[in-house]
């Protein structure tokens, strides 16, 4: 029996959802691959890091790792309903760089003797929903949301860089490269036509990310 158009659309959406669940599980539970070399590759591990500093830095990197989990989900969500090829290309490029960030954070947490956040599955599936909704609304607001996220992540990374002990150059190098990439992602989104978001939305985003960073520092 020939399938009705709406049945075909339903099947496509179902396939896409299954694909997203598989991708999500892979991101959450597999070791993240990285295509670029680690920015701290030429720096040896400092022997002067005290256990207290290591613990604190592992927690800071756990926050950043969770941020990258959210970034993967947001990008995938934003690609879900997007039909614009230029935006797709730019989102995919940025998502690949975020995958490097994810891998670097994961490796550094391990070296510092820490653990990734227990909240990551919740954050991932929450963020993919937010990204999906943004992609339905309108391209310019989808990009605006992306540009604002990247801007807030850059300033968050700045705040972590100044908190680091001067001895831990490895973590600093990783965060500096991540910040530079996030700034670039913001610029790319703006070049593609990102709209400026209303102040109230920016405030909500900032508040939500503060809650997220406070909780993931702890668990
Ligand atoms: Fe990132
Ligand atoms: Fe980014």
Extract low-pLDDT stretches: none
What is the CATH architecture assignment? Up-down Bundle
Helix content: over 70%
Largest sheet: none
Principal-axis shape equals globular
Please give the number of β-strands.
Answer: 0
**SS field, number of helical segments:** 7
Query: At the fourth CATH level, what is the homologous superfamily?
Result: Ferritin, core subunit, four-helix bundle
> Between the first and last Cα atoms, what is the distance in angstroms?
53 Å
Let me know the average pLDDT.
92
What is the CATH class?
Mainly Alpha
Number of domains: 1
Output the radius of gyration: 18 Å
Fraction of residues in β-strands: under 5%
Summarize the structure.
The chain has about 220 residues and is mainly alpha-helical. It has seven helices and no strands.
Overview of the molecule:
This protein is mainly α and 219 residues long. It has a single domain, classed as Ferritin, CATH 1.20.1260.10. It contains seven helices and no strands. The radius of gyration is 18 Å and the shape is globular. It starts with a helix and ends with a helix. The mean pLDDT is 92. It binds fe (ii) ion (2 copies). One fe (ii) ion (FE2) binds at residues 68, 71, 98, 101, 178, 182.
